Amino acid sequence: MNQETAEQKTVDQEIRDLSEMIRSSARIVVFTGAGISTESGIPDFRGPDGIWKKMTPIDFNDFVRSEEIRRESWTRKFSGGASMAEADPNSGHIAINELVQAGKISHVITQNVDGLHKKSGVPDDKIIELHGNANYATCLDCHQRYELSDIQQTFLADGTIPYCDSCQGIVKTATVSFGQPMPVAEMKRAEEATFSCDMFIVIGSSLVVYPAAGFPGMAKQNGAKLVILNNEPTDLDSIADLVIHRQIGVTLSAANANLHVLH
Ligand code: ZN
């Protein structure tokens, strides 16, 4: 057997193992990070070429404290090139949505702010966005939603910084910024989903950002099977039942295709 064949066999075996574990599970939680969205052309902010390596992120407390810093923040937001809102779900998002629609996946917990799980068809009540969503804004006080296109129009016209129409509160992109507390309701939903699952799949997260990265361990301790699908090794590989270091979209698509054969 030459080396290429041996390698191929390993890929097939990993996909068969993943399919078999999905088949034998009734309630799966998927936990996604930046790695799934890089395949849609969205850069990994924390990666070696990430935005945060070139530009210091704005701290939440500074944003609240200073109008100048809010102006800087909106300037950055609207001066980028192609926005996240224009990105499309890739084969990884689509494969996850297939398993949601099939009733296999109970919840998708994500660290991503790009909204691509929703765009792929996953219903809101099955998505838990731990770090919020970059495609709209909300009032920090009353949580009323505002559309970025409206904010952009007035900001670019005369530099007007958005305040809430209802309560005059500060309006901010609906992401969880550095220095901003994790959203209590989303953390609680994520915990409940994690403790109710019998299989937990980490997809495209290097599992370095706490508290979010604590969920796989919680699931494992609670008796769920743990799978990690990521390009690079993670700190939790040693406790996982299956570890796959491969491209996400092709791997999940192949596992789903194989799943139909198993039925
Ligand atoms: Zn308000």
Task: Write the topology of this structure.
Blueprint: H1 3-23, E1 28-32, H2 34-38, H3 51-54, H4 60-65, H5 67-79, H6 91-101, E2 105-110, H7 116-119, E3 127-129, E4 132-139, E5 145-146, H8 148-158, E6 171-175, H9 184-196, E7 199-203, H10 215-221, E8 225-229, E9 242-244, H11 248-262
Parallel strand pairs: 1-2, 1-7, 2-3, 7-8, 8-9
Antiparallel strand pairs: 4-5, 4-6
Helix pairs in contact: 1-11, 6-11, 9-10
Bound molecules: zinc ion.
The site of zinc ion has 8 residues, from loops.
Describe the structure.
The chain is of the alpha/beta class and 263 residues long. The protein folds into 2 domains: 1-42 and 88-131 and 182-263, 3-Layer(aba) Sandwich (Rossmann fold), CATH 3.40.50; 44-86 and 133-175, SIR2/SIRT2 'Small Domain'. The protein has helices at residues 3-23, 34-38, 51-54, 60-65, 67-79, 91-101, 116-119, 148-158, 184-196, 215-221, 248-262, and strands at 28-32, 105-110, 127-129, 132-139, 145-146, 171-175, 199-203, 225-229, 242-244. The strands form 2 sheets. It has a 6-stranded parallel β-sheet, sandwiched between helices. Helix 1 (3-23) packs across helix 11. The site of zinc ion has 8 residues, from loops.
